[in-house]
Amino acid sequence: MSKKTYLQAINEAIKQEMRRDPNIIVLGEDVAGGQGGSGEVGGVGSVFGQMQGVYKEFGPERVIDTPISESAIVGAAAGAALTGLRPIAELMFVDFVGVCFDQIYNQIAKFRYMFGGKAKTPMVLRTAAGAGFRGAAQHSQTLHPLFTMVPGLKVAMPSNPYDAKGLLIQAIRDDDPVIFIESKFLFGMEGEVPDEAYRIPFGEAHIAREGTDLTFVAFGAMVPRALAVAAELAKENVSVEVVDPRTTSPLDEEAILDSVGKTGRLVVIDESPPRCSLAADIAGLVADRGFRSLRAPVKQVTCPHTPVPFAPALEDEYMPNPRRIMEAARAVLAA
Amino acid sequence: MQLSRDDLKRAYRRMVTIRIFEERVTKEFAAGNIPGFAHVYLGQEASGVGVCFDLTDEDHIGSTHRGHGHCIAKGVDVRGMMHEIMGKRDGLCGGKGGSMHIADLSKGMLGANAIVGGAPPIAVGAALTHKYRKSGRVAVAFTGDGASNQGTVFEALNMAVVLKVPCIFAFENNGYGEHTAVSYACGAPSMAERVRGFGLPCEVVDGMDFFAVQAAMKRALDHARAGNGPYALELQCKRFLGHFIGDPQAYRTPEELAEARSHDPIPKFRRRVLEAGLLDEADLDAIDREVGDEVESAVASGMAAPSPDPAKDLTRDVYVKYA
Ligand SMILES: Cc1ncc(C[n+]2csc(CCOP(=O)(O)OP(=O)(O)O)c2C)c(N)n1
Ligand SMILES: [Mg+2]
After folding, report:
1. Which of A127, B124, B237, B265 could form a Cys-Cys staple with B174, CB 3.0–4.6 A?
2. CB of B147 sitting under 6 A from ligand 1
3. Is pTM beyond 0.90 here?
4. Structure ipTM
5. Residue B156 reports pLDDT greater than 70
6. Which CATH number fits domain B5-313: 3.40.50.970, 3.30.300.30, 3.10.450.50, 3.40.50.300?
7. Cα A191 from chain centre
């Protein structure tokens, strides 16, 4: 066990898994970097550094820099997965999924079912998501609802370094296609991470904080925010339980229902526009199966129904911020 | 060379405006006055200015993530640009777009584009409007060497040929897409050869020489405006800095970077017009000073300008009418 960042946890998971299984290859833009240039090859290791040192250790046969061709990157990963490899493809920013969505939702998500259970597509599509970097409308989205609604995909959203490593190892060993959504906001976050390989099973929520008065359900980068507000409320003797589902597909419905069964109050915090969001999905779940335990209306803290704005003054209000989470909590507690 | 003194001054002014603007963006970015990320056009001034030189406000361009130079070349206001890049309310896009999304439809500038390969299909559509309306105007798709490997670009090239629209594909080959060289990422021996395979002419042009670019673009315009369909240019350029501001560029040797700088299009232009006696030093120096003042004042007013107001601006303009 030692302190590592979220970024280091991802990097370590990839290296350890690649040492274990020679069928794992990596495909993406600048995952090595410097190919064809006059200087150093392999010094980039992905734009956020997730692949630092991976090329140096595993070389060009397994760490493959591609042209800027997302459809072909994801499609090639799909084809390699169908035929026996275990590719980890990288989509630099989740926003670029628009370029290659067909390969994801018509191809990889559907192979197993369409082919009558005869195919396996053991690939991971890693990508970075989230606002807060002044990246504007085409470099700041989250888009996890888009993946979550597609049957056949699994979707992981680690909220801390420990989960990043354990969920990524599970994703790599999983025989189904996994969309692994890294939070740009969390790359620098530190936490205790075991040195050895370990897996965190999909579809098992983590109770990030136990409480009795109110349940927060939050995803990815919203979990630390929810925890910070929960800590504030604790000073007022309000006991908040924070549920981190870790994967949105499969979703641990029971953990959410159990928590609401205990607290009777629910705020869902989701960095996503509100329509068809995970917030709406979970509010629907609780209305359907947990209605009797509710003592107040469910509140959803989401982004507005707008693209992500560039100006810092706008972006800070766009994201679910601590003030808005606190307001929702107070409204639910007062009801 | 049939350019008048005024033409030459206009060309020089645009190139120098890009140079000074981008140097200043680099500095203000480092100082923390520009949020997000910015990709500057330093070194490629002759390419953008040469391509846009004979376009009117009714001709369209679609741009890239490295779009500041294309905007300036198309005559977009520097003050509005600087305010936009700083995220201010009176920026060209109200502070909602930033560096990678500057657009000015009144100038025929259909937007910088943060999706690599996003613009060429859009330019085909603008060219379709021109064909349909028989406007005699064209659309230009600026596309990088890296972007040239996107499926969207292949589709746009083919469709432009099939629809025979007045679309000019300006491929700016600056040697790199992010941190990967074109020699690695582009499988064909030459970009131009690959483009020709789609059934349109493609010239290889020295993108560091304004006069070469402007002359080639004139041929492209004559071709497109005569109703002969699309035309392409492979503009061979040099990227002076890293992909984004702050890129350490270990993948390029100091020798390569120095070699790139030796092709600087601005001293080259100066030498050319001075040796031919077309303009004198005083003309050029005066332009340098005026542009310096213009950029200085854009920065000063940008720093002082108010930010957008979340209460009023956050949900505005998602639709024509938000209700
Ligand atoms: C669809 C998509 N993929 C990847 C990126 C990340 N990206 C931004 S610029 C760039 C390189 C583009 O290279 P090139 O087209 O040669 O333009 P240059 O930067 O050299 O001007 C990449 C990969 C992106 N913005 N959009
Ligand atoms: Mg390039």
Report:
1. B237
2. yes
3. yes
4. 0.96
5. yes
6. 3.40.50.970
7. 17
